[in-house]
């Protein structure tokens, strides 16, 4: 991961995301901010951050699919910051269930992407997922699918509340 991350997070790579982030920001403002008397920034910033992450990491485009994915992901994120008691009805149990669903969704995306890459339907450097699928370790081995799903999950978690909180503070101050 440490070797791979700079490839898509170095300044030159980030420059390439600006246009897309701007388009998503404009659509987000039109859909969720425009014409409102009052807004609560944190949940809206979450939606925006997740949308950008889904696009940069996975090239997900469909707002309906992203919205559904984000609901499951929210349960997962709440489970991380919860008391670790695995009983029915607890946020921890909901988080575990949500993580299974998120992994399942990611595995489906990975399988489809492998087909698309093999058929040349997508560019090898299209997003972080393609980078991960084509990256090899010191022994020339590819990462397995579950490992990739876990790494994407880790990046989604790492970039979610952090970036959302930063955006919210920027608006606040
Ligand atoms: C304003 C937003 C962010 C803040 C405040 C933030 C904060 C941090 C901090 C404090 C660490 C170090 C944790 C430790 O080792 O103790 C860290 C590590 C990390 N962050 Fe972020 N982060 C942000 C955004 C992101 C984003 C957008 C991503 C993914 C695209 C990301 C991925 C990672 C990864 C992979 C690590 C582990 C790096 C390593 O150990 O080599 N972060 N982050």
Automatic annotation (TrEMBL):
Keywords: Iron, Metal-binding. It comes from the Eukaryota. GO terms for biological process: sterol metabolic process. The keyword Metal-binding applies. One of its GO terms (molecular function) is oxidoreductase activity, acting on paired donors, with incorporation or reduction of molecular oxygen. SUPFAM superfamilies: Cytochrome P450. Belongs to the cytochrome P450 family. This is Cytochrome P450.
């Amino acid at each position: 991961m440490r070797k791979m991350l700079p490839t898509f997070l170095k300044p030159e790579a980030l420059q390439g995301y600006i246009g897309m982030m701007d388009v998503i920001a404009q659509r987000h403002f039109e859909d969720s901010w425009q014409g409102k008397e009052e807004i609560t920034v944190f949940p809206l910033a979450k939606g925006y951050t997740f949308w950008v992450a889904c696009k940069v990491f996975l090239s997900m485009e469909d707002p309906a699919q992203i919205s559904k994915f984000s609901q499951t992901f929210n349960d997962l994120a709440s489970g991380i910051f919860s008391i670790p008691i695995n009983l029915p009805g607890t946020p921890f149990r909901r988080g575990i269930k949500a993580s299974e669903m998120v992994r399942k969704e990611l595995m489906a995306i990975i399988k489809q992407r492998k087909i698309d890459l093999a058929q040349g339907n997508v560019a090898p450097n299209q997003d972080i997922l393609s980078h991960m699928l084509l990256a090899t370790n010191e022994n020339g081995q590819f990462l397995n699918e579950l490992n990739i799903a876990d790494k994407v999950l880790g990046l989604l978690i790492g970039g979610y509340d952090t970036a959302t909180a930063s955006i919210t503070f920027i608006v606040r101050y």
